[in-house]
TrEMBL record:
<dbReference type="GO" id="GO:0003677">
    <property type="term" value="F:DNA binding"/>
</dbReference>
<protein>
    <recommendedName>
        <fullName>HhH-GPD domain-containing protein</fullName>
    </recommendedName>
</protein>
<dbReference type="InterPro" id="IPR045138">
    <property type="entry name" value="MeCP2/MBD4"/>
</dbReference>
<keyword id="KW-0539">Nucleus</keyword>
<dbReference type="GO" id="GO:0005634">
    <property type="term" value="C:nucleus"/>
</dbReference>
<dbReference type="GO" id="GO:0003824">
    <property type="term" value="F:catalytic activity"/>
</dbReference>
<dbReference type="GO" id="GO:0006281">
    <property type="term" value="P:DNA repair"/>
</dbReference>
<dbReference type="InterPro" id="IPR011257">
    <property type="entry name" value="DNA_glycosylase"/>
</dbReference>
C-alpha cells in the first residue's frame, strides 16, 4: 500500500496559486510589463545620450568661435599716443630692408623706434665742435665716401631703402652732382630728381621724401635726427655711426652696419 505524501502547507499554497488560471495570467502580464519597462529605460538612455552629444557639439562650436574672436582681437593693433612732435606716419618710417654693400636685396621686417628711443642721446644733432672722423673699413659702405656731409649720409640711406648697394651706387654721383647739398635739393624740382633715381623704383615717393627731408634738415629747430622726415632706425643708426661718433650707443639691425659696428669695436682703443 503506497504511502500518502505529506506536503508542506507553504508549498501546497504555492501549488494552488500556480494551477490557478487567473494567477498565471497575472504573472504573464507582470513579465510583459517588465519587458516594456526595460525597453522604455533603454530608449530613455539613448535619448539622453543623443541630447548630450548634441549639447556637447553646440558647446564645442561656441568655444571655437569664441577662441577665434579672441585671436582676431589680439591681432588688432593698439594705437599708442605719442607727442605730435615725434609722431610720424608709417610711410615716413625708414624700412630696414636694405643692403648697404654688394649683394642681393634682403627683405626684413621694419623695425620702428619708440618715441623714447627717438629722443635717445645717440640720435642727437651733431654739434659744430664734433670732430668725429670714422675710419675706413674693408667693407666699402657707400656712407664712408660722404662722412663729411651728414645730409649726404642720410640721403644715401634713403636711396638704399629696398635697394641693393650696386643699384644705389649707380645713381649717387649723378644725384649729388644735381643736388650737392640740402639747400640745392630743397630748390630743384621733384621731376629732376625722379629722372636720376628712376632705376631704383619708387622714384616719385623717394623724390618727394628727399625734398621734404632737405627742407627740414636746413631748419635749426630739430634736436634729434629722428625728427626729420623719412628717418627711421637704419638711417638714425648710420647717422650715429658715421656722423656723430656715438656708434657705441646704438646696435644696428642692418647686417652691413653691423659689420662696420663690429669693425669699430675691434679698434676702439685707437679711436679718439
Amino acid at each position: 500500500m503506497a504511502e500518502e505524501r505529506v506536503i508542506s502547507p507553504y508549498f501546497e499554497k504555492y501549488q494552488r496559486l500556480k494551477e490557478d488560471p487567473e494567477t498565471e495570467n497575472l504573472n504573464k502580464k507582470n513579465e510583459a510589463l517588465k519587458v516594456v519597462t526595460c525597453s522604455q529605460l533603454v530608449y530613455s538612455q539613448l535619448v539622453c545620450q543623443k541630447t548630450y552629444y548634441e549639447l556637447a557639439s553646440k558647446l564645442a562650436f561656441q568655444v571655437v568661435g569664441h577662441l577665434k574672436k579672441e585671436e582676431k582681437r589680439k591681432k588688432k593693433k593698439i594705437a599708442k599716443k605719442v607727442s605730435p612732435y615725434f609722431e610720424k606716419s608709417q610711410e615716413e618710417e625708414d624700412v630696414d630692408s636694405v643692403v648697404v654693400g654688394l649683394g642681393k636685396e634682403k627683405k626684413k621686417k621694419s623695425i620702428l623706434l619708440s618715441a623714447a628711443e627717438k629722443r635717445s642721446v645717440a640720435y642727437e644733432r651733431k654739434c659744430c665742435d664734433n670732430t668725429w672722423k670714422p675710419p675706413r673699413s674693408d667693407f666699402g659702405l657707400l656712407q664712408e665716401d660722404h662722412v663729411d656731409d651728414p645730409w649726404r649720409v642720410l640721403v644715401i640711406c634713403m636711396l638704399l631703402n629696398r635697394t641693393t648697394g650696386i643699384q644705389a651706387k649707380q645713381v649717387i654721383s649723378d644725384l649729388f652732382n644735381l643736388c650737392p647739398n640740402a639747400k640745392v635739393a630743397s630748390e630743384v624740382s621733384s621731376g629732376e630728381i625722379e629722372k636720376i633715381i628712376q632705376p631704383l623704383g619708387l622714384f616719385r615717393k623717394r623724390a618727394v621724401m628727399i625734398k621734404r627731408f632737405s627742407q627740414e634738415y636746413l631748419e635749426e629747430s630739430w634736436t634729434h635726427v629722428t625728427q626729420l622726415h623719412g628717418i627711421g632706425k637704419y638711417a638714425a643708426d648710420a647717422y650715429a655711426i658715421f656722423c656723430t661718433g656715438k656708434w657705441d650707443l646704438v646696435r644696428p639691425a642692418d647686417h652691413m652696419l653691423n659689420y662696420y659696428w663690429d669693425f669699430l669695436s675691434t679698434i676702439t682703443h685707437t679711436l679718439n
